[in-house]
Amino acid sequence: MIPIIDLHCDTLSKLSSSPSAFFLPPEKAQSHVFLSGLCTSDVLLQCFAIFTDLYEPGEETPVSHLLKQVSCFRTFLSEAPETLAPVRTYSDILTNKEQGKISALLSLEESCLSEEVLSLLPTLYSLGVRMATLTWNYPNLLGNPASDLTLSLPQDRQPPSFLADVRHLHDGLTPLGFDFVEEAERLGILIDVSHLSDAGFYNVAAHSKKPFLASHSNARNICNVPRNLSDDMLRVLAEHGGVTGLNLCEHFLVSAPSSAEELLDALVCHARHIVSVAGIDSIALGTDFDGIPTNAAIPDVTCLSRLERALRAAGFSSGELDKLFYQNALRVLKECLPA
User: Fold this and answer.
1) pLDDT of residue 89
2) For 171-223, how does the pLDDT look when each residue is reduced to its tens digit (9 = 90+)?
3) DSSP state, 323?
4) Cβ proximity of 214 and 192 under 8 Å
5) How far apart are CA 53 and CA 86, in angstroms?
6) Is there a contact between 306 and 264 (Cβ–Cβ < 8 Å)?
7) Bridging pattern class, strands 4-9 and 283-285
8) H helices of 174-283, where?
9) What is the CA radius of gyration of the chain?
10) Cα 313 from chain centre
């Protein structure tokens, strides 16, 4: 089996109230990603995103919501110390591999958790965060997303007070957003442009001094949704040494509901297109497991071998598959994480 690096899953959010479910056997699993599945699928590294919906009504603050998911992550690690180990430096990945352990990297999906977003960065770094999407689906103090869902929000979904006037931002990054990119890179936190607006993408490309990535985005030329990347964006990302992680979300793969076979064909089509436009060094895997409805073709982590077989049947060589499933992502992590 080919080792796997998955650049994005939302398992922490899904299991934050019941972290013990991560250890259930496959037949009882409550999530797309679970420990035994990671083991049997030869996963080298799994990125676990801390997801925060800033417009979700509730008593928790965004920061307390984050800390709850950090606690869930630590439970995963503490309950499986012989199997799962954290990544804070690139050398951790190599050490974990030598010891036969799966690497677990903590990331953010929505980086604007308070009005003190910049001063919060060192704390996030100390908690182990090593990758950050600048926005989710709503405008924040850093910039604008790939789509503005605030226009159709139900009445009970309102932003926290520090985002009350944020929809008046311009299309790309704000001055604070530029500062965030600079400080995150200085610390050793990788910038993730999935969910970011097109203008924000190009702002990051112009300002970033290190490779950046789109952890879970597909090809807009194949499926025309804002969350996917245009051909020019794919090329710019590749020119900066970054990668695009194939996303399993049906909405980002096809324009209409599709069968399992059609979804697998669509994944192959997106992979072919990304490689044809930006080269084999520009593609990786970012499943979006547990953040999306179940993909009929690849319903959980144990089924990723189906994608490998489909890509191989479509003409991808063993060397190309190695790059897609782990080598390209590993290269970016080596260039951006602390040594």
Assistant:
1) 98
2) 899 999 999 999 999 999 999 999 999 999 999 999 999 999 999 999 999 99
3) I
4) yes
5) 25
6) yes
7) unpaired
8) 175-187, 198-207, 231-239, 250-253, 260-278
9) 18
10) 27
Q: What is the pLDDT of residues 137-148, one digit of tens each?
A: 888 999 999 975
Q: Which two tokens stand for residue 204?
A: 């990051």
Cα–Cα distance between 30 and 123 in angstroms, integer?
Answer: 31
Angle at 214 between CA 208 and CA 215, to 5 degrees: 125
Q: In sequence order, what are the residues at sequence separation of 6 or more whose Cβ sits closer than 8 angstroms to the Cβ of residue 313? A: none
Question: What are the contacts of 300-306 at 24+ separation with CB within 8 A?
Answer: 300/26, 300/29, 300/31, 300/32, 300/33, 300/34, 300/37, 301/6, 301/32, 301/33, 301/34, 301/37, 301/38, 301/41, 301/43, 302/26, 302/37, 302/40, 302/41, 304/4, 304/41, 305/1, 305/41, 306/264
Which tokens sit at 48?
A: 């676990």
pLDDT at site 157: 73
Residue 56 has a pLDDT of 79
Distance CA 61, CA 302 (A): 35
Q: What is each CA distance from 117 to 84, 121, 126, 304, in whole angstroms?
A: 30, 7, 15, 36
Q: How many helices (H) and strands (E) does the chain have?
A: 13, 8
Identify the segments of the chain with pLDDT beneath 70. Answer: 57, 148-155, 165-170
CA distance linking residue 16 with residue 72, whole number of Å: 5
User: Which pTM was predicted?
Assistant: 0.96
Q: Report the first-to-last Cα separation within the chain, whole angstroms.
A: 28
What is the chain's length? 339
Query: What pLDDT score was predicted for residue 153?
Result: 60
Average predicted confidence (pLDDT) for the chain:
94
- Do residues 324 and 291 lie in contact, with contact meaning Cβ atoms separated by under 8 Å? no
CA angle 32, 36, 41 (to 5 degrees): 75
Residue at token pair 């993909």 = 295
Residue 151 confidence (pLDDT): 52
Q: What is the pLDDT of residue 337?
A: 97
Contact of 133 with 145, CB cutoff 8 Å: no
Q: Which two tokens stand for residue 316?
A: 């991808």
